[in-house]
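Example 9 (inverse folding). The structure is encoded as follows.
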């Protein structure tokens, strides 16, 4: 199973030896991880050093290396030149995708996100009424910005009337930043493996955003991160610490049902991204979106890590 490797301790050195990522401090090995087990490498510690071979070996395996700022949000992702064996054809199909198709794809993504937000609220005894109706109101391209309407209701209902989503603040927002960073890395790897390019988004198109497609495709999965953060709050764990980080990275192993059986999030994301590639090639929207987990399943998200059972 893909592991999210998070480097937070200052003074570590990373290098690769015989198929392992070697983590050292003052020339003494602290640990090693098989490269084939790594799903993403996230670096928070600004004093980290590494050999060039780390980036080369990661790129060969389509493993994103995410560099984060002080607020735990990503500021850079190292991206390989080569990906899927059909990358050339996929990239052309992605770049030439008709505007109506992209609008239809975005409609489905936004509707799925809003339905999932309502499901999370209902599962936690909050007011999720009306979110299914909002999801049905999303039109092609979401010209009415129903996504923003839902977000305003969602955050207040889930986190309280005083909560404001602000990436620069600590506490809950730092937990969300970290969880979304993990999710973004998982989605970015799936994009590379599918032969698509992260810069060519469906909706997000900011010239300064080199991972617009990643930001588009992670939308339906964001409420899963929110649920883990909510579970952290229920356990009075409001700061970004080893326990809460472990809870958030455990998202990648959480099972989702996309209609053909249960698969870990990392696998289901790969199928979702592949369905997008097929949509670009066929010219028809055919996204494989997961079914909302049960309230009991959502309540379990990250719990084992928070309770010290793993």
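The amino acid assigned to each position is listed next.
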């Amino acid at each position: 199973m893909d592991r999210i490797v998070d480097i937070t301790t200052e003074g570590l050195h990373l290098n690769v030896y015989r198929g392992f990522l070697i983590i050292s401090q003052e020339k003494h090995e602290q640990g090693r991880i098989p490269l084939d087990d790594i799903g993403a490498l996230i670096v928070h510690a600004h004093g980290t050093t590494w050999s060039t071979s780390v980036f080369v070996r990661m790129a060969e395996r389509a493993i994103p290396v995410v560099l984060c700022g002080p607020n735990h949000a990503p500021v850079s992702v190292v991206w390989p030149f080569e990906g899927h064996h059909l990358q050339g054809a996929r990239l052309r199909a992605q770049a030439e995708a008709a505007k109506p198709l992209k609008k239809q794809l975005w409609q489905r993504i936004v509707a799925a996100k809003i339905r999932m937000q309502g499901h999370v609220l209902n599962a936690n005894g909050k007011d999720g009424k009306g979110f299914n109706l909002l999801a049905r109101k999303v039109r092609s391209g979401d010209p009415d910005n129903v996504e923003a309407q839902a977000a305003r209701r969602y955050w207040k209902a889930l986190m309280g009337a005083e909560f404001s989503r602000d990436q620069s603040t600590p506490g809950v927002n730092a937990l969300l930043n970290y969880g979304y960073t993990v999710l973004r890395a998982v989605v970015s790897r799936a994009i590379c493996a599918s032969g698509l390019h992260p810069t060519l988004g469906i909706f997000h198109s900011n010239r300064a955003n080199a991972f617009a497609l990643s930001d588009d495709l992670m939308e339906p999965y964001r409420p899963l991160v929110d649920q883990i953060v909510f579970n952290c709050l229920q356990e009075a764990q409001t700061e970004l610490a080893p326990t809460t980080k472990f809870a958030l990275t455990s998202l990648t192993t959480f099972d989702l049902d996309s209609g053909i059986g249960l698969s870990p999030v990392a696998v289901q994301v790969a199928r979702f991204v592949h369905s997008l590639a097929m949509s670009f090639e066929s010219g028809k929207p055919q996204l494989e979106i997961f079914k909302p987990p049960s309230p009991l399943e959502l309540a379990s998200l990250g719990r084992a890590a928070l309770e010290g059972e793993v």
